[in-house]
């Protein structure tokens, strides 16, 4: 009887497997469905990639499908969707019957490299080790190889959400890091000065590495590289949406806010009302809101946070309000960061965010007709800042990154920077200050202040050259005489502060061209060519010189 049951079980298994296997034509039909859907219904997503680039990748995968295994086709689809570089547009690798396996470790990117932050208890030696190579391939090359499979908005998104694609056997094979699809992988690791190899065996399909806010947390089955004797504030009570603690020694209120959602029993509005009531009753001098682990949620709850800050005369001042951001600050939390930036006197601390400032977010599931796989396609445009102020992320005014040793020993250099920062004349938004001096006609002070800030390490976080180029371009694009004359002033100023800026000279030439001053334009274009003879800027300047010669 047992033998008969075993035979029946095997028969049913093979029948189900046969039903799940798609033909080449069916996969190709699914791919065409993706192509047509993007062109017909989501053409607005063609911003960071062109329709031509997209179609070229589709045709390449279409032709390869007869020679690929199913997991390679799915990874190929992920590469195509990743072309759009919007984090909400992707294909999940956790869909039955095509679910991917995982190796039992979690890697994390620290200031000094990629480390095994957590792993299953079967691999204690690996926990806390620095990753040197995967299957003999240097980790830097491995990350470059898997990056095309990740729907990365920017490099921060990849570091936070994408680097753990190395724990999928299917991706390692599809990206040619392993020669075959295999259920084990060998990592070269370094720990306590010793370099060694560790082989990991993939978990059963359906099992996932149990991460919370990007970290494995220690329990009976999993190990965390962090010293468990205490827990830093940013990792405390992660089961809560938000919590607050008054740090009396520092006269600071700390808030850790890790989702844009309402806590059961206390809404976002009620929580911040309570926090600000406590601030008013205490001798608190600053508020620190920690958003570094906040991956988003419900945008409509952001209003209550921002309004609470705006109406607090005690907190809404430069030097009294600090917001910690980082590489997991994403989605609806990016909107919160944008709004805090727009309407308060905030100083951002930490690392850049994982989302573009303005972005295509949210998504709809679109089911492929043959495989039944859902792909997620963004459909809502979120724009909290003017188009001219769009950027790949919001960057901190006080940049601080964490080393592995600081993490392992429960130190928090980011919070420490927010608690100890004291620069009474600090300008968290340097360009706003520069523009105010320019508009008020204080040209001499503008030159002096710019020179000082460019040289001051305190403002190393800000790219003055790019900021000034944007300002000059706004004036140049207006096409009006007064603004064109002003653009000449701005680009001339940039060329003084950044004498090797080919872009400044090229734009200066364009400004003179718009003012019909050909001799000055030629002089500027020639300088641009001399600085960037073989680059794109130099080529553009050469083209302009040819146009002038035709006149």
Indicate the topology.
Layout: H1 2-20, H2 24-41, H3 51-64, H4 70-82, E1 90-91, E2 105-110, E3 113-120, E4 130-134, E5 137-138, H5 139-146, H6 155-162, H7 169-174, E6 184-191, E7 194-201, E8 211-212, E9 215-216, E10 222-224, E11 242-247, E12 252-257, H8 268-281, E13 286-290, H9 302-310, E14 321-325, H10 332-343, E15 347-350, E16 359-361, E17 364-367, E18 374-377, E19 380-382, E20 398-399, H11 404-408, H12 413-420, H13 430-439, H14 443-455, H15 464-478, H16 481-497, H17 502-514, H18 518-531, H19 536-550
Parallel strand pairs: 12-13, 13-14, 14-15, 15-20
Antiparallel strand pairs: 1-18, 2-3, 3-10, 4-5, 4-6, 6-7, 8-9, 11-12, 16-19, 17-18
Helix pairs in contact: 2-3, 3-4, 8-9, 9-10, 13-14, 15-16, 15-17, 16-17, 17-18, 17-19, 18-19
Fold and architecture overview:
By secondary structure, the chain is α+β, with helices and mostly antiparallel strands. The protein has 19 helices and 20 strands. The strands form 6 sheets. Strands 11-12-13-14-15-20 form a 6-stranded mixed sheet, with helices on both faces. α9 links the parallel β13 and β14 (321-325). α3 (51-64) packs antiparallel against α4, α15 (464-478) packs parallel to α17 (502-514) and α18 (518-531) runs antiparallel to α19. The radius of gyration is 27 Å and the shape is globular. Residues 1-19 have low confidence and may be disordered.
